[in-house]
Specification:
The complex is a heterodimer of chains A (536) and B (309). With 536 residues, chain A is an alpha+beta fold. Chain A has helices at residues 3-17, 19-36, 49-56, 61-78, 95-124, 132-156, 160-185, 199-219, 222-241, 363-371, 432-437, 504-508; strands at 264-273, 281-290, 297-309, 315-319, 327-329, 341-343, 356-362, 374-394, 400-403, 406-416, 419-430, 444-450, 455-471, 478-487, 510-532. Chain B is of the alpha/beta class. Classes of the chains: A alpha+beta (536), B alpha/beta (309).
Chain lengths: 536, 309
């Protein structure tokens, strides 16, 4: 029997052996795909929006991963490489053929099949075609990494009970170890606690795991395999354990010279003791003002660092975190709608902004800031964005649009005293690394426009942040679901002032204009502020 | 003639415990070789090393004229293995097991498989995991014999089998495979079975192969001597030679296993040492007696070594 025929022979045997489990796994993958395609679980089930929202956050990916782990474990242990009395080892079977048969079954059942579902989910979520290959790769590598780890444990343990015990104990030990390492490394605040891209460690686990299992099948000597792979395995686990600061993507395009504002001033508005560390750690409220910024553009400091130079000559460097990790808004831009008149409580339609950040500083810096005389160097990159109207939707529930992998859907419209109140869900597909960084609706600004009267009413976030991320068919790229309610600023007319113009009749002709802020480029910045002190 | 099994200097350690200590083994082609030894002597370890299931700490093995590591799949297809407690895929029926294994062996004999199935009265459609221990051993034996192997290695293959199967089937089968030029290396506690079957015997004790020779030579080499004293106490004229084994004394009766130096000279030697003996009886030793004698000798030596320490 040729080597290839042996592979087919073992695949046939395993398929027959695990027919029910394979069928169950296919059902789980099918269910997960149906869920990712929103074929069920998205309609309001009668318990209100919260329940519907929770259901929306449900993912079948963990079930696919668990089913995959069970399949891999049973597949490998049915022809164990760790038992010298395993049935297959005394038969004229090539160890490589046995292993390749298992790998082939795993690839088809647990990678290709769910990847098909994952692709369908990406397409259904209007992910731009250009982003699909990288997201598919991330999905495949993430799942392969999980299966690689499971395969290692399954190949090195003689039975299922030992496999489960080893996997459980190692996971618990690793989680505790990881927490310990992370807390030690992030103690000085230099490393932001967060999840880095899992693609690299997953790839290491997938390739390394396969190599280890192949070596084990070749030698069938657990001790030798452990001796050879112990150090690389620990290093691979360390890859995930070591925290990575999440850094924003800095646009490679240079911002046009006319848009490069440079007059950045830095101030400290307040100092608050850190709870539990009062007297040793303080939170300084930093204020940034980019004086020559164009109001039609949005400016943000990315990956910024502040270096505090104290009167005694010592320096302390801290990363700057604002609205998002390593991202600080620098101005308060304005929306412009040519041909429209702004109405309502806040006629100045401000694009989302707010220039400030809290930063952890030690007592020495706090003392120096109170006394004045602190020099602060701020360096980083400034990103410039401009507004782009994405869509105008009818102001009614169910109206939806999609753009660049983000889907926006109006869930509910209420008529409030000051104008419409819109509850909407934004959903976006993002790589896991990006998903930690941004909420999908973060760059949207919304305006109710009445095209008949040529009037516009700025809507502001009334409640936001009810967001959750979930995997699709496979672990890896995430679907982020955010629920936001926007409404007009409450406005009580002064005596003699006309009643609000936004009436039911106004609402009937109104639409929701969604504006996105699109990056036009970035540039490096380094400014020095002398003599900074706390000034409210 | 190239030996079917050739092992030299085989050593294997489980941590600090040496299971095998420099074993040299040669099994001629076509032989039915009985490997004997007390519990813990290293028999199973030796068989596993021969099959490549265990890696020896030192030494080399050649099967059917090829170094173990150079054996190809086609070579392995000519080697059968049956062991006590051997793991079989319990989810398979015997029918399925045969269908799975048959394509792997170019020499699979379907007729023989069918014949064995009916002779062993094995249920074809029952899953292996729901068979009795004896039935599973028969199934293992069936799939080991059906490919008509050139070399068959068996580790306690009779475990769980009833006496009828052992006597009527297994013996006949083993004789037939041996008759076809198949080499059989068999280790079993059932010395009675081995004595009837084997034409070679090896004795492994504490990791050392202390003898390995044809059965007829072995039988001829050791004599069983029974001495009856004439009512009085059992007294030897002088200290007994160290190669006299299995000394049993009960009242005025003693039995020895002594190396043969020719029938008449052996009896003369015994009579010279036991001058007051009423009766001296010398006959060929059975395999069981040789085994027991050698095992006791080994135990005595081990005990002495323990005391020395």
């Amino acid at each position: 029997m040729s080597w290839l025929a042996q592979v087919r022979h073992v695949v046939g045997k395993d398929t027959r052996h695990m027919a029910w489990l394979i069928l169950a796994t296919i059902l789980v993958i099918g269910g997960s795909t149906a869920r990712a395609l929103e074929l069920f679980g998205t309609r309001e089930p009668g318990f209100g929006n919260a329940w519907a929202f929770l259901l929306r956050g449900f993912s079948g990916a963990p079930l696919v991963a668990i089913a995959g782990g069970v399949v891999v474990a049973l597949l490998l242990q049915s022809d164990s490489s760790a038992r010298s009395d395993a049935f297959w080892v005394t038969r004229p079977l090539a160890p490589s053929a046995v292993l390749v048969a298992k790998v082939a079954l795993v690839v088809v059942l647990l990678l290709l099949l769910p990847l098909g579902g994952q692709l369908a989910a990406f397409v259904a979520h209007d992910v731009p075609p250009g982003r699909i290959p990288s997201l598919m790769l991330e999905s495949a590598v993430s799942m392969a990494g999980i299966l690689g780890i499971v395969a290692v444990f399954a190949a090195l343990t003689p039975d299922l009970r030992t496999f489960l015990a080893a996997l459980l104990l190692t996971t618990i030990g690793w989680v505790f170890g990881m927490s310990f390492v992370r807390s030690a490394l992030t103690a000085d605040g230099l490393l932001w606690y967060g999840s880095a891209s899992l693609v690299l460690p997953s790839a290491v686990f997938a390739v390394g795991g396969l190599a280890l299992v192949a070596y084990q099948y070749h030698t069938r000597d657990v001790r030798r395999t452990v001796r050879v792979f112990a150090l690389p395995a620990l290093a691979a686990m360390g890859l995930v354990a070591i925290p990575h600061g999440i850094r924003p993507t800095i646009s490679k395009a240079e911002a046009p010279p006319a848009l490069r504002a440079t007059r950045l001033t830095v101030g400290v508005r307040d100092l608050q003791p850190v709870r539990g560390l009062a007297g040793s750690q303080w939170q300084a409220s930093m204020r940034f003002v980019l004086a020559d910024a164009d109001e039609a553009h949005r400016y943000a400091l990315l990956d910024g660092f502040a270096t505090f130079r104290l009167p005694d000559g010592s320096t302390i460097r801290r990363p700057l975190e604002g609205y998002g990790p390593r991202e600080v808004s620098l101005n308060e831009p304005r929306l412009s709608l040519p041909g429209f008149t702004w109405v309502g409580g806040n006629a100045r339609a401000v694009g989302r902004g707010g220039a400030g950040a809290w930063i952890a500083v030690p007592d020495a810096v706090a003392q120096a800031l109170r006394g004045g005389g602190v020099r602060i160097d701020v360096e980083g990159h400034v990103r410039v964005q401009e507004q782009r109207v994405l869509s105008r939707l009818p102001l009614r529930a169910g109206a939806a649009m999609s753009s660049d992998g983000r889907r926006f859907r109006i869930e509910r419209v209420d008529a409030g005293p000051t104008g419409p109140q819109v509850s909407a869900t934004t959903e976006a597909i993002a790589s896991r690394r990006d998903a930690w960084r941004n909420s999908p609706e973060a760059s949207f600004d919304m305006v109710a426009v009445n095209a008949v009267r040529k009037q516009a009413l700025a809507l502001f976030i009334r409640s936001a942040g009810a967001g959750m991320g979930h995997d699709l068919v496979l672990p890896g790229p995430m679907a982020q679901v955010y629920q936001t309610t926007v409404g007009a600023v409450e406005h009580v007319p002064r005596p003699g002032e006309p009643e609000p113009v936004v009436s039911d009749a106004w609402m009937r002709d109104a639409e929701l204009s969604i504006t996105d802020w699109v990056t036009v480029g970035s540039y490096p910045i380094h400014v020095v502020s002398d003599g900074v002190r706390v000034s409210r | 003639m190239i030996p079917a099994i050739e092992a030299s200097g085989l050593t294997h350690r489980y941590g600090r415990h040496a299971a095998l200590r420099g074993v040299d083994l040669e099994v001629p082609e076509g032989a039915l070789y009985a490997l004997l030894g007390p519990n813990g002597a290293g028999k199973t370890t030796l068989l596993r090393i021969l099959l490549g299931l265990l890696r020896p700490t030192a030494g080399r093995v050649a099967l059917l004229g090829k170094e173990l590591r150079f054996l190809r799949r086609t070579d392995r297809a000519t080697i059968g293995y049956v062991a006590e407690g051997q793991r079989l895929p319990g989810w398979m029926t015997l029918d399925l097991l045969e269908r799975y294994l048959a394509p792997l062996y170019p020499t699979w004999d379907f007729a023989l498989a069918s014949e064995l199935r009916s002779r062993f009265r094995l249920p074809v459609r029952r899953k292996l995991k729901s068979m009795s221990r004896g039935e599973r051993m028969k199934a293992a034996l069936l799939v080991a014999l059906a490919p008509r192997p050139r070399l068959l290695i068996m580790d306690e293959p009779f475990t769980g089998m009833d006496a009828l199967v052992k006597d009527e089937l297994v013996r006949g089968l083993l004789e037939s495979v041996a008759g076809e030029g198949c080499t059989v290396l068999l280790c079993s506690h059932d010395i009675g079975e081995l004595e009837a079957l084997a034409d070679w015997a090896g004795f492994l004790d504490a990791g050392r192969l202390i003898l390995s020779e044809p059965m007829d030579v072995l039988r001829a080499r050791f004599k069983r001597v029974e001495v009856m004293m004439n009512g009085g106490p059992f007294v030897a004229v002088e200290e007994l030679p160290p190669d006299w084994l299995s000394v049993e004394r009960a009242g005025g009766r003693a039995t020895f296993l002594i190396p043969d130096h020719g029938a008449s000279s052996t009896e003369e030697e015994v009579r010279r040492r036991f001058a007051g003996a009423a009766r001296v009886e010398v006959r060929e030793a059975s395999l069981r007696e040789v085994f027991v004698g050698l095992a006791r000798e080994g135990l005595g030596r081990d005990g002495a070594q323990e005391e020395d320490r």
